[in-house]
Structures are given as C-alpha cells and as structure tokens.
Amino acid sequence: MDDRQTPHETAPSRPRVFREIMENLSPGYFALTMGTGIVSIGLHEAGWDLLSGILLSFAVLSYAVLWVLYIWRAIAFSGAMRAELRRPEMAFGYFTVVAGTDVLAVRLSAEGFSAISIVLVALAAILWFIFGYVLPWQVFLSRDGKPILSRVNGTWFIWAVASQSLAIGLSVIQPHVANGQSLIGLLAVLTWSVGVALYAGIAVLVLLRIVHFGMTPKEFEPPYWVAMGAMAIAVVAGSKIVGMDSTPMVDATRALIAGTVAAFWSYCLWLIPILVGAGVWRHVVHRVPLVYVPTLWSIVFPVGMFAVASINLGRVDSLPVVESIGHGSLIAAVLVWAVVFVAMIRHYVLLAWRSRTRS
C-alpha cells in the first residue's frame, strides 16, 4: 500500500498555520502603522516627498488590513482577546489602535484629506475614551493570583502615547472645523495633560518593578523604547498646541506648555544612550537572539517620533543644532524601519515556506 500523504490529507496544514497566527496576533500590531506613519511624516517635513508618499501608502494599507484582522480575530478568537484584556503585560498594547489612527490622520491631513482626518480623529477620540477606562479596569480589577507590579512593562507607556497622539490630531483638525473650536482646544489640552500625568505615573511603576523584581535581559523587550517615544510625542503635541488658534483653554496654558517642550526633548535625548546600552546588554552581552517579533515596531515609532520632535522644536524655537539632530535621527528612523520591514517579510515568508514543506 502506498502510505504517502495525498494533497487532500495535507491541505489543512496551511490554514492551521494561519489560524495560529491569527490566534496569537499581537495586541500591539498597530505599531506597524504608527511607525510607518511617523517616518512618513518626518520625511514629508524634511522634503522627501516621494519616499514619504510610498510609506504613506503602506501605512494606509497596513491600517486597513490590521482592522480586518483584528475584527476577524475578535469574532473567531474572542476568548483569546478577552484573556489579553486582563493581562497587564499585554492589555495596553491595544492603545496602538488609537495612536495608529491619529498618526495616519495627521499624515493624511498634510496631503489635504481633511475630511478623512476629521473622521479618523473622531474615531480615535471614541476609542481613547473607551480604552482609557475599560483596559485599566480590566487590568487592575481582574486578578489571577500574580502580582501586577511584576508584570508592568514598556507597553504601558503606549497609554500615554495614545493620549498625546490625540492631542496632535485635535490640533491638526482644528482649522478645518467650522464650529466647536473652543471644545477642540479644551480637549487637546486635556489629552496632552493626561498624557503627561500618565507618563509620570507609569515611569514610577516601571522603576518600582525594576527595583523590587529586577529585570532579566530577556524581559527587556522592544516596547521599553516607548518610554522615549512617549516623551517625544509630548514634545510634538505641546508644540502643536502652542501653535493652535486662540481658544480660552489654549491661551490659558500656552506659556506653561511651551516651557515644558525643550525640557521634555532634553529628557528624550538623555534616554537614548540608556536604551541603546540596554539593547547591547540584552543582545551582545547576554546573547538573547535578535529575531523578528511584532513589538520591534515599538522601536521604529520612538526613533521616528524623536526625529519629528527634533525637527519641529528646532524650527519653532530657531534651534538649528536641534533640527540637525532631527534630520540625523530621521535617517536612522528610515534605516530602522527598513530593517524591521525586511525582517517582518522574511519572517512570514519563512512561515509560509515551512508550512509548505511540512505539507
């Protein structure tokens, strides 16, 4: 008897691989749109419009595909998603949906798609409000017997990033909204302030986690770079609010916010050698393998956001050295994006190939 498998018997293997990918899809995969969008914004501000447009197209494509995959996963693997909402080390990754929506809205606004930007910012505002109450509630009140503090990680900073991204989105759409500009100004200042407060609180929690529980090289994962990106986006959001049209809330806080921007940027600059050194400690000293994981996009976004923050701050405050640092950082951001993008393509091509060879 011929005991070789028939095509009919082996066909389910590839769908099974896809099901595994869907079931384990990272909650923070919208960092792909965040990273691609912010690098596109930086390139646009630097005058590299062709490359910026290519990345914008990819950002739009990734945003649409990720929404389809997330909705599909919510239907097919609802149990897995509900479990993630209660896990402190994973739940806050869903704030990438908010930040990715805002980043895309800002970039599309620069291309003249104001109506689409308004819709996207409105969607981001609704999601920010819902996630901002539901996710912390799930994390803090759903206990599984493990201490929450030991599971705090870099993904928690994405909560602050989402708040600051909404502040930027609101500042960008304000000139295109006929009514309610005072409300937009109020919300922009509110979300910026909430983002700063969240950053401070989360930074304390991360520090306490390290002091009390330590951190192994394996635990120092890419999302810790968001600690820098969350402060860099506060610089951009603050600069945008300072430049907003006059409203009561904006006028009341303009001087205060303007005074924080340079200090926040300096803190970002100080953090970069620490993060790079920690990466060397992780991958070179302790030889943790450098392989593709979706959270690598959490490195692309902070590097790109620091570049945009530096360019904006340098131009607004007439600081040519800071603007030059921004242009250098933008080159680094493009290179990091390219490396992570190639690694992502290679990862999924290898998965498909291994599935085929097993069949």
Would you kindly provide a written description of the structure presented here, covering whatever features stand out?
The chain is an all-alpha fold. The chain is 76% helix and 0% strand. It has 13 helices and no strands. It starts with 6 loop residues before the first helix and ends with a helix.
**Structural class per helix/strand content?**
mainly alpha
How many beta strands in the DSSP annotation? 0
Query: Could you name the ranges where pLDDT drops below 50 across 5 or more consecutive residues?
Result: 1-12
- Could you tell me the radius of gyration in angstroms? 21 Å
Topology:
Layout: H1 7-10, H2 13-23, H3 31-46, H4 49-76, H5 78-84, H6 96-110, H7 114-141, H8 157-173, H9 181-213, H10 226-242, H11 248-285, H12 297-316, H13 320-358
Helix pairs in contact: 3-4, 3-6, 3-12, 3-13, 4-5, 4-6, 6-7, 6-8, 7-8, 8-9, 8-10, 9-10, 9-11, 10-11, 10-12, 11-12, 12-13
Describe the structure concisely for a colleague.
The chain has 359 residues and is mainly α.
Properties at a glance:
globular; 13 helices; disordered N terminus; 359 residues; mainly alpha; single chain
